[in-house]
């Protein structure tokens, strides 16, 4: 049960932290239509986070808000990629594409999880995530194959994000303990990379040749960006411990 | 002349004017002004609430707030489209906003220092907006009326959500209750001023009413709003900050105190706490997004050229 | 005594929040020399803040850290100008010039305050602030009269900051209650503006014709930027109430 | 040939080589490599600590931390200057760093998730740096040795401040004590690795020692460091995370366990947690500052031209 809760935190924290970063985009998007679109995607991710954290919370005897607001950064289990600072719109598009392509494979595989509740969450999430990837892919192509500046910005953003991609697919003993329930992240890598590289090809972008970074998000070694992000996210809830909102 | 008379006939018969119908120039200009101001208000209004998206105190409230701010972007989009049917261009309207030349509702120049402000904006500001806007669902210009129907539906959700936030705070810890009361203290008078100056000082109103764009006077709407607020405030367990507020059995309405219009005018004149910040925020987002919009256009042009070329190749 | 403490919070909070924003510059300056210079200036401001808040704290029965870390944004008394988001280097230069020119007049006047301790703090601060203004003026001239881009950025930054300048000089009943001890901010305006406009002239920059904003920082109506800034600044101290560091 | 022999004579006599003295090409290159790496380490090393400036838990600690990070920028500047006396250009060195081609101390690729890391960096990382650097104050190249004297003075302040942070945490609340212990657990082994690979695997050391740039071997310095740490850890009330650590009366030193060099090599090869982040941060700051540096140069050129013109006018 502790393993299951831990696994739910992996997925839930990735979704929550992604949603929090997208929340920073609202009122800052390059056009109003995109404020709406990024808001939608953020809401989907937040919905996924709530379903996953609520489930984890039931196993741990805490509710979704206790998990979101009263854990420190070292207790979060998200990968580093999702907590990178907001950056420019190219960064947003690239991360949405990379995280989306991973999530698409992840949730597709989890629809057949032996844990029915998780399978149900995945079945809802997969539809949402497919749309997110489509949306990101559309922008990647427009910007990659747009102007010289947009091409350069996209390639730079891709180079910045790429070293963080591998962590998503790192194998981990936890998924072995959850055989039939969880998915070995390593098995998602090839199909996700196929999806990504197909988009990058169309976008006239080059797959970076950069080294991966160590990661460690799944094991309580969060990125340095998570702490300041949580400081803001949690400030009000923590100022009124035990209050209802 | 036949156009003019057909316009008059439609107005007199409480019918709808549609984009291709002839209409007096003044009517068109007045509508463009009103609709674009309304659109700008939705867009600028995203900011005081957007200010709390990253800090919303529960995931439930965060989701509601994100959805609300996103709805406002959507409202802005409908309204710009409605204005476009009158021949205004979105680009021009946006540029006027960024240049600080266009008006938007002054209420969004007030800041949101606490979470309770999100409740107060929902309850009071959206509440006032609904009072203003429900009659607009019957406005004589079709695209505007239809946009308002959709917008009003969503606004009434927003108002209920604001009420709920305040109710939860009011019934929460003493500190939470105080946050709620303090926010209501700050937003009450500005929300009453959203209906515009007293009828005696409102030059545009008469014409708007004759054209059936506007259906009730500023003071009528303000009274309706106050009458609605009083019982809701009681339900909230919060006090409206007006010592002169009392039931007048003779009028069948609540009497209320004089408003301090000098502050309203200062904010309107650009001297509110956040006027500069709001326009600067929009300007920054617009400027930072320029490369994205240019790239999207460049890509569309490339794509069109390729399609044309391949069509030519096939021919 | 409450009035005196309140006045010390005016000055101390301006200094603290300025220092906090400059702290965000360290490791981000356009050249290493400027990391050093901005760090020095931030340290001076932090030193001023500590002297002022310690004094206020003695009157209020709280120490400097209780005042810095355990007040909410509405309890701060800083002007809006100092809490504006970091922005680009032109924003930093402009704010340093504007706030510095005000502080230069303020501390010069306070060296003759009837309150000896405050006069002593001012005597130390005035030397520091003069250097800060010199430093800002040097950059204003280099950037204003540098390239087309730097001129444009400086003028934009000036236009952004200018509406917030007036609040610094707003008269306030508090200083009347502290006759001989505090300084009426309105009396500082003309000499400060002279200093500023002389620099802007040399920098080929134009005094903006923009409207002022309402302000309200002295009366517990802080800018919307202060809350998120304090969320980060106070997060650790608040996570361990009562702890020593 | 006379230059070569004068160089040998100075080295043999424990004298100082100065910038204009002749020196073997290898000596020059080796020094440039070492000094620029050291400079880069100071600059990159600002980041893991800079990470806590905005969140330092007291104003006293905030001031100390700002001063420390600022000192590091200063150290970087002295060291770049020392390298420039050997004919390297700061611009080239900086470009190599930004391009990811230059080395810097791998230790700064570890993250600082908690405030206690600031203490651990001061105590362990600066402590190791001092052990490494004190002998460098007698390095044969004058400008480097002089830079090191100044740097070592400041570093020993930094180390004491780090020790104080940990001491306060260790004696603080249980949560604070745990933060301190946990940070020491993470930084202990990496700090021992700062002395470089075991002597057997360290190809550059022999030459550096012959040239009297380096005075002690990696393993000698590491032993000295461990011997220094053990009593300090006892004073702190914290445990060093090495079960094999014990006094060896025969050797008159502490024995300690094998280090896991595979992790060291992975971090060195760019796969640490923060390698990408550190270089990217520097690159962003550099890129964002380009317009400022260009403007400063343009202004200087304008000013020079004006002075020349007015001199001509006067003539």
Automatic annotation (TrEMBL), chains A, C:
Classification via PANTHER family: 1,2-PHENYLACETYL-COA EPOXIDASE, SUBUNIT C, PHENYLACETIC ACID DEGRADATION PROTEIN PAA
InterPro entries listed in its UniProt record: Aromatic_CoA_ox/epox, Ferritin-like, Ferritin-like_SF, PaaA_PaaC, PaaC
Any Gene Ontology CC annotation: cytosol
Identification of the protein by name: Phenylacetate-CoA oxygenase subunit PaaC
Pfam annotation, one family: PaaA_PaaC
GO terms under biological process: phenylacetate catabolic process
